[in-house]
Amino acid sequence: MNKKMFSILIIVLLVVSSTNTAFAQNSYKCKSMDSDKTSMQVAKLMPLNAKKYDKETLEMLLLAFTKYGFVINKIAENDVGDLVVNLQNGRLKSYVNIKCARQDKLDMISTEGDVSNNAVIQDNGEIIIDGENIMFYEKVNPEAEVRANAFQDRYQLACPYGTAQDYTKYYRTIRNSNVSFSTSVKNITTLLCAVMIGRIIPGFDFLFGLSYEIAGLIKKYDPYSTAASFVTSEYFHKRGYFVNNMIAVKRCISTIYTDTNYKGFIFTRIFYFVHEFNM
Hints:
Elements: H1 3-13, E1 27-28, H2 35-44, H3 55-67, E2 71-77, E3 83-89, E4 92-102, E5 105-112, E6 115-122, E7 127-129, E8 132-134, E9 151-156, E10 169-180, H4 190-200, H5 208-221, E11 227-236, E12 247-257, E13 266-277
Antiparallel strand pairs: 1-2, 2-3, 3-4, 4-5, 5-6, 6-7, 7-8, 9-13, 10-11, 11-12, 12-13
């Protein structure tokens, strides 16, 4: 599976549903998974409709759920042959109704209260919500500056080296003045809104907590917002991009606006991109 598809699978993690769904008999329970256990659990659901699902994609999807702290209580086929995953994270109990999970396409339903959305994610990263094609900013890949197989990249909230005050060397600014939601955010589930934010802002697709938090704030303070804008400024450590022989770091300051052209309510969050030698 290529890296693009894995990123999309991580995004799918966010699209969960709180709707009640009747489960069929073909189901299992599990509290945590590693890759081997996931393979065995997926095998229990086989044979699935090969036109709708493939084994590798399902395995990656289930691992994505557990990666971000969800307990998978149950997974089953419903009466129409869709997979429904029963998830729990603390007090949050939710479901994701997966209509299709293949290398080239993910199709699912997200429901919160009386708000329900159908979301289709294509292998090119486009998301179609309730039939509307959502246009996204073509992200500049911050991992492309210095790349080698011996390195691994990640995003995190904690400063990985020194202190935040050490990151004074300006690198660049990424911005987009008009990111359309296609409809008012009050008509989109919080978690699906988080998916869109993850696609819009570089780094947020790997920081589930930030995407979900910002989605909730936008829905709370500007529920009739139909578009947003953002500015992300990146800084190197005063020593430069590589702070030592093992690690390179960027400090990212993202400001999200609930309206176009950098207007509306403002939310600012700070995180770090880390490019580290893989021992």
